[in-house]
Amino acid sequence: VRSAQLMAVRKVLRGRAEIVVVKNKLAILGLQRSGIKNAEELLKNLQGQNALIFSKLDPFKLFLLLEKNRVNLAARAGDIAPADIVVPAGNTGQQAGPVLSEFREAGIKTKIEAGSIEVVEDSVVAKPGTQISPKLASLLSRLGIKPIRAGLAIALAYENGLIYGAEAVAIDLDKYRASLLEGFSSAKGLAIEIGYVTKETAPDIIAKAYREALAVAVEAGEIKKESAAGILGKAEAEARAVEAKGKEKGYGAEKP
Questions:
Q1: 109 vs 89, 106, 124, 148, 154, CA distance in Å?
Q2: In the chain, which residues have pLDDT < 70?
Q3: Residue 245's pLDDT is what?
Q4: Could you give the dihedral angle defined by the CA atoms of residues 64, 155, 160 and 38, in that order, rounded to the nearest 10 degrees?
Q5: How far apart are CA 145 and CA 73, in angstroms?
Q6: Helix H segments across the chain?
Q7: pLDDT value of residue 256
């Protein structure tokens, strides 16, 4: 975790959570003496370097807060590209000179315009999962491109004696929202089908009943203001069908 990244997260969490970075031995001693439930199970997971976040927010809200406040950082040599890194077309503001070789090595098409380097077309300089070379990191920094999306991730969460793994607190809001909308749509469709009247289903149930009543009236030939057009249309369609069938049989054909 870079210091700039940690400072940005501390600022976002101010008043809602506190980040404490201490050696594991000190953290273990403090947690053992705190008297919290299930402490031994929690301490088994204190391996490697850790930052402890203390908050009254539940782990799920804390996860969403951390995800929402990730920061863009300049790439360093050895970083892994999280997605396609694109150098956009346009004037770079870089003066023509030795730096041109860095553009060529990165596979970027350029031209000189009024003494400065211009990128001819959008260029993908790194694919997801590829390692960023020192020269590419330097070039991206010159161009002001910050491709590394960084932030703090919850490795383990503790609340009232319960321990949650990272996968348990990682909520995909878009997926969750889509699932709720799908569930609502299915439930509403079923309610309309069985005629279960609620504030949400009443307009659709009334509209469905109207359409069905109108269809029955048209089928029965019950002429009303609402059904007349449908009845006449049905009669005309049937007449045309009879006429077409007659022509197939040779009826109605002109005699020579």
A1: 9, 9, 11, 23, 41
A2: 1-2, 252-256
A3: 80
A4: 170
A5: 9
A6: 3-13, 24-34, 39-43, 59-68, 100-105, 134-142, 166-169, 173-194, 202-220, 228-249
A7: 46
Q: How far apart are CA 123 and CA 50, in angstroms?
A: 38
Quick one: DSSP state of residue 253?
P
Which of 19, 141, 20, 30 is CA-nearest to residue 79?
141
Question: What is d(CA 81, CA 131) in angstroms, rounded to the nearest whole number?
Answer: 6
* C-alpha of 155 from chain center: 22
DSSP conformational letter for 165: E
Phi and psi at residue 148, to the nearest 5°: -90, 115
Q: Which residue has the tokens 């960084």?
A: 150
pLDDT value of residue 57 = 87
**Token pair listed for 22:** 């201490």
3-class SS of residue 70: coil
* pLDDT for 133: 92
Partnered with residue 159 across adjacent β-strands are 162
Q: What's the pTM?
A: 0.53
Q: What confidence score (pLDDT) does residue 254 get?
A: 54
